[in-house]
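Sequence, please.
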């Protein structure tokens, strides 16, 4: 069923590697927001790199007759991985747009959840390319749990925001960033859901 180091699987691995790198950079970056312009620029570079991988997969799909897994699954997985990168880049761009320079404990906690999620995604993708389909269930369960943690964190930080922040503009800025970070963990869970349907179709 699978070809050794198929171009699609190789590109998925590269996307997963880039995702981990980007999310780790983001997580470190939010602890020092002294240069938000450089921070947003680097995140944009990661997102552009991921777009090139998406382009590679689309190009290969157009010229490949036999694919290692269903074409729809390849497309769905490509889109869900790209969504995570787009989500994290959109969050980083808000720091520059809103000129946010103060450290925020909740954003740091979201960053930690996203780092752990990115590592689980990478683990799952490498299991896919190694044809260990049933083993993917373990990182998938971890991704679901991490998304639940992000849901809980969002409730806590929104409550804290409305209790402690009096400036309505600052409140709006922070609230939007918190919600975008939580949405990015939803995108991580979407990767797990896509992988789950691949397991069901191929095992």
């Amino acid at each position: 069923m699978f070809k050794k180091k198929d171009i699609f699987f190789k590109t998925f691995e590269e996307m997963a590697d880039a995702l981990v790198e980007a999310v780790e950079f983001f997580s470190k970056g939010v602890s020092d927001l002294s240069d938000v312009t450089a921070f947003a620029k680097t995140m944009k570079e990661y997102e552009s790199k991921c777009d090139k991988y998406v382009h590679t997969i689309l190009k290969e799909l157009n010229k490949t007759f036999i694919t290692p897994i269903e074409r729809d699954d390849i497309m769905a997985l490509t889109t869900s991985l790209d969504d995570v990168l787009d989500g994290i880049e959109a969050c980083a761009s808000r720091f520059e747009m809103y000129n946010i320079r103060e450290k925020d404990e909740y954003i740091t906690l979201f960053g930690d959840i996203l780092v752990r999620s990115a590592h689980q995604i990478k683990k799952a993708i490498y299991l896919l390319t190694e044809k260990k389909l049933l083993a993917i269930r373990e990182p998938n369960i971890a991704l679901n749990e991490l998304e639940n943690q992000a849901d809980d964190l969002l409730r806590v930080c929104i409550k804290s925001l409305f209790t402690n922040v009096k400036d309505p503009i600052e409140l709006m800025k922070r609230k939007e960033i918190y919600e975008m970070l939580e949405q990015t963990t939803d995108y991580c869970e979407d990767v797990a859901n896509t992988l789950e349907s691949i397991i069901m179709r191929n095992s």
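The two ends are 11 Å apart (CA to CA).
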